[in-house]
Amino acid sequence: MAKQLIKIVMLGAQAIRRAFTRALHVRTTAQSGKISEKTVQTDRVCGMTLQEAKQILNLTDDDLNDSEKLNKQYERLFYLSDKTKGGSFYLQSKICRAKERIDEELKVSSSPTKNSQRKKQTEDLNDTNTH
Fold this sequence. Notes:
By secondary structure, the chain is mainly alpha-helical.
């Protein structure tokens, strides 16, 4: 009984330590200005950093802009890790999460561009209406 109680306490302490370490890392990274606040939020939601996602899918920074290569690499790795072909469901899940993380980053990084385009269009309309 005592051994089981000690194991439970140790597991709880490890979980708290991991959560604290991760929160501290995210906070210091965001404060250092290396990555944007939106990227930090996306890391938290997805549970995976962009760097980890790129490593899983074997992609470089340049490959992120090439949607054809991104999809091709994802499909190839997803197919190879299929459980019926001797692969692992865990690996297949990590590949899927990596693709989702990269898609989320692309969506976040493209949204300011769309917002600035809308803002410019609105300003242009206002200019034409005032003249």
